[in-house]
Design brief:
Mean pLDDT: 91
Strand order of the largest sheet: 1-2
Bound molecules: tryptophan
Largest sheet: 2 strands, antiparallel
Distance between the termini: 51 Å
Number of helices: 18
Shape: globular
Order of helices and strands: HHHHHHHHHHHHHHHEEHHH
Strand content: under 5%
Low-confidence stretches: none
């Protein structure tokens, strides 16, 4: 077998996986979903689903990746022999990666635009109306959001073309902890605002009567999206994990960190929203209006705003890297084209769909289907359908198709790690995860 690169260290895997997980999913999409689904009702479901199912699925993907040392399509060839139905998991994942990357880079472009705005000090002294106006005029600008999106894609392609180790690992290790620090600072500020109590009540009061099928599937989709699971991204990362690494503890750390950052984002954004009078259901504009408002109220706000958007751009970049990596790892190994070529081809194809998503965001844009923008449509198809389906197939493969001995062998590193808790994980993969995904999936169909 061809020698593949491995991550340099245990910290390298955790940081690279956290780099993939942490991103717009936590800071932009999570508050959006929580706001739209009743705040506390969403949070409680999300916490259960992310901690329990998230860890389970992450481990399952790592098992496939490390056992096969291959991309999400090749993995099933290695484990199952030539042509077989399981390879469709890989194809589904690659398609999903394209679609996610397409609309993800729309918002990624906004973060770049907002970095520019922070440099130019566009937020100082502005009231809520003006800051909301800035969001509308930026997203409706004839070319700016597209240029930002394309620059972002190009940056991603450059990093991916250079290969896994020096590209992904080096960056994540330094910058992710910095993002966490700045979020804690923001959090402290947000908690001193007038509306803090109302915001926290909205976010932390679990109103069980509000939990319905839509809340369940939204929380499931959000946890898959936020943890980068259900589409083979982590099969690819798992393939770079060395034989001695403790995959369960790495996964737990990543899930914990990812959930922490999402909750922090909520603790920053909801108190701010209630203070300044932004609707928690404001959707896409929520983070991009509340955050500048908070910075404006801070001593040294200019500086914090700048650093924050810089780190957000980088957190987003480590996520787009992992998405493009799925496409590139697959095309280089399956179609035997070079890494740089695959990176260029992959990003160009994404650009075509991505620009449509960005254009669809404009007021009066004709790019609507069924009353949804192309942007929302891509988001819903991937998070509410493709990822849960991919995740289901992954746990079915690891729990039912792989030999129990092989799965446990991976989980315990050939018997060198304690089996107790890892047997529990095996049963979570085999029974709990598939049943939960199917139940949640069906619950949204019955109104
Ligand atoms: N998890 C990332 C976020 O929260 C987005 C992401 C990166 C992703 N890679 C992925 C989502 C793979 C699904 C699959 O921002």
């Amino acid at each position: 077998m061809k020698q593949r690169e491995n991550f340099g260290s245990k910290l390298g895997i955790i940081m690279a996986t956290a780099g993939s997980a942490l991103g717009l999913g936590n800071i932009y999409r999570f508050p959006c979903e929580a706001g739209a689904n009743g705040g506390g009702a969403f949070l409680i479901v999300y916490l259960i689903v992310a901690l329990l199912m998230g860890t389970t699925l992450m481990v399952a993907e790592f098992i496939i990746g490390r056992r096969s040392h291959s991309n999400p399509i090749g993995a099933f060839r290695v484990l199952e022999g030539k042509k077989n139905g399981w390879m469709s998991i890989g194809w589904l994942g690659v398609v999903c990666a394209f679609l996610v990357l397409a609309f993800y880079t729309t918002v990624a472009g906004w973060t770049l635009g907002y970095l520019g705005k922070s440099v130019a000090n566009h937020f100082e002294g502005q009231d809520l109306g003006q800051i909301q106006g800035q969001f509308v005029s930026f997203t409706n600008h004839p070319w700016l959001p597209i240029v930002c999106q394309l620059i972002f894609l190009a940056l991603t392609a450059v990093v991916v073309a250079r290969g896994i180790k020096d590209g992904i690992e080096k960056w994540s290790k330094i910058l992710m902890p910095m993002l966490l620090v700045i979020m804690v600072v923001l959090c402290v500020k947000s908690l001193t605002l007038n509306g803090a109590a109302d915001g926290l009540r909205f976010f932390f009061t679990p109103d069980f009567s509000k939990i319905n099928g839509k809340v369940l599937i939204s929380a499931l989709g959000q946890s898959f999206f936020s943890l980068s699971i259900g589409m083979g991204a982590l099969i690819t990362y798992g393939s770079y994990i060395g034989s001695k690494d403790n995959m369960l503890s790495s996964s737990t750390s990543v899930v914990f960190a990812d959930t922490l950052v999402a909750v922090l984002a909520g603790v920053i954004i909801f108190p701010a929203a209630f203070t300044f009078g932004v609707q928690p259901e404001a959707g896409a504009s929520l983070a991009f209006t509340t955050l500048p408002m908070v910075f404006q109220q801070m001593t040294g706000g200019y500086f914090f705003c700048l650093i924050f958007f810089l780190l957000l751009v980088i957190a987003t970049l480590t996520s787009t890297i992992s998405l493009l990596e799925v496409i590139v790892a697959t095309t280089t190994e399956e179609l035997h084209i070079s890494r740089p070529k695959a990176a260029i081809l992959g990003s160009l194809t994404t650009a075509v769909i991505g620009v449509l998503a960005t254009l669809s965001f404009r007021e009066g844009s004709p790019l609507h289907l069924n009353g949804q923008t192309v942007f929302d449509m891509l988001d819903h198809i991937t998070a509410l359908y493709l990822m849960p389906i991919g995740g289901l197939m992954i746990v079915l493969f690891v729990g039912w198709r792989m030999k129990k001995a092989d799965t446990l062998d991976e989980l315990t590193n050939g018997g060198t790690l304690r089996a107790g808790i890892r047997k529990v994980v095996y049963y979570l993969i085999r029974y709990v995860a598939p049943v939960a995904i199917v139940v949640i999936f069906i619950s949204q169909l019955v109104k």
